[in-house]
Every structure is written in C-alpha cells, then in structure tokens.
Amino acid sequence: MAQHSTQHLLTALASKLWGVDTVSWGLASPHCYLELSGCPNFTEDQRAELERAANDAIRAGTLVTPSWHSVQDVNEGSVEGLRKSSKALPASVTGPVRVVRFQGSFQGAAGLDTNTCCGTHVQTTAHLQAVKLLRIEKNKGNSKVYYLAGPRVLSALGACIDREANLTRLLSSGPSEVVAKVDEILSKQRLAEKLRKALVGELVDLLAQKLREEAVAGAGPRVLACHRDLSEGLDPPEFAKALASQLDDALAKPPGKLLVLTLGQASGQAS
Length: 271
Description:
Layout (H helix, E strand, L loop, with lengths): L1 H17 L3 E5 L5 E5 L7 H16 L4 E6 L1 H5 L21 E6 L2 E2 L2 E2 L2 E4 L14 E9 L2 E8 L1 H21 L6 H39 L6 E7 L6 H17 L5 E7 L7
Parallel strand pairs: 10-11
Antiparallel strand pairs: 1-2, 2-9, 3-4, 4-7, 5-6, 8-9
C-alpha cells in the first residue's frame, strides 16, 4: 500500500516539476520504480529535488481521499484537478469510476494529485513515513527511478548499518574510513597481481628455455614433461597458454615433440 501511494505521489510531483509522464511502474520487492518518459538524462540533482519534494509532502500529512464519478465526467475532464492521463477510459469501463485525490498543495497551487485508481492507498501521506530514491537507470529514451518507501526505508537502513558494522570490524577502521581502506586494499591487490604476472612471465621464460634446449637435442626425449605446483599462484589456463606459445616452433621441428604439462596441488594431484 505504501509503495503504491508513493508511486502516485512521485508521478504527480515529477509531472508538476518537469512536465514528464510516468509510462510504467513496478512495486516488486525490494525496490520499486517508476519510468519517466522523455527524459533519458534524469540527473542526480533532479533525483534529489524529487526526493525532497516527496518527503516535504509526507511531513505535511496530506490527506488521501477516494471519490466516485461517472465515466462521462472522467472522460470529459469534469473531475476537478484530474490528471490528464486519466481522461481516456476504454469503452469497456461502464462506471462508476474511483478517483483518488492527494490533497494539500504544491508551489502555491491547491491539490497534489487527482487520478483514477482502484488500488488501496494510505489515508494520509504521513503514513508513508519516508521516501528514498535509490538510483536512476536509462531505458530506451526514458529514465527508471528506483525508490523505497515506508517500512522498507527502515529495513534498508538497518541492513546498511549491519553491513557497515561488519566492514568496520573486518577492516579495523571507522565508518568514515571504510571507502579509503577498501581503495587501499584494491590498489595493493592490483599491484600484487601485476607483480605476480611479471614473475609468472619470468618463470615461463626460464622453463621455455630449458624445454627448448631439450627439444633441439638430437638424442633428447620425444616427450617433454613439465609439472608445477598450484601453490605457486599460477593460473592454469594462463600459464599453459603462455608456455605453449613459447614452445610452438621447438615442438613443431622434425621429428616433432610432445609437451605434457601438469599442474597440481602439493598432494601431487594434477589438474
């Protein structure tokens, strides 16, 4: 109910602020959304403005009231303040038609929203408690604005606080230092990976040189064998490809050689 009423509120405010229509919406858990038409570049500033306007309306405790009207009144726009998108009911609708009105005012004009709807709603916007707009996604020339409202806001906040507590414990840092700490760890990880690849490259060069010498030896073995332990930090596909590429010419020379490469754990099990 809270998510549905919030969708009405956000749709009305977006229309009043920028003249954009809502062309679709979804109320699935955990995140709801409304899709705003004709604004593929909905900005973070707009997101903040829409969120602020919605929470202002919630704090105002605007009444949400239903009323019933004839199909003719709706189609002809005789219902005061009726949203334009509600004025084209299909012929299959015979009435009476339920209209939901968000009272109050916006920027000095009376009435937040008046729209046809058969769904359940809160009695006042105060029951929505709070609205949080989460993110924006582009979608075929439109923008999807994802949001939380009511109890879901507190649930999400509680989950964030729990994650923050776990991260500060694991990283041995304060909440304000978590991002910097993670960035530092990732930076060290990238450096370590760069060093690992360099060392693997040196290892491949040494092994390739040794196997190349065996391959060209006149009385050398027809089968060249190489085994490495995975505890050395080797990536099997990466290592095998690098070593084989360095030995292509040596293996192809008559009478030809076969390379058998095994990689395994310290237990001796190959992979």
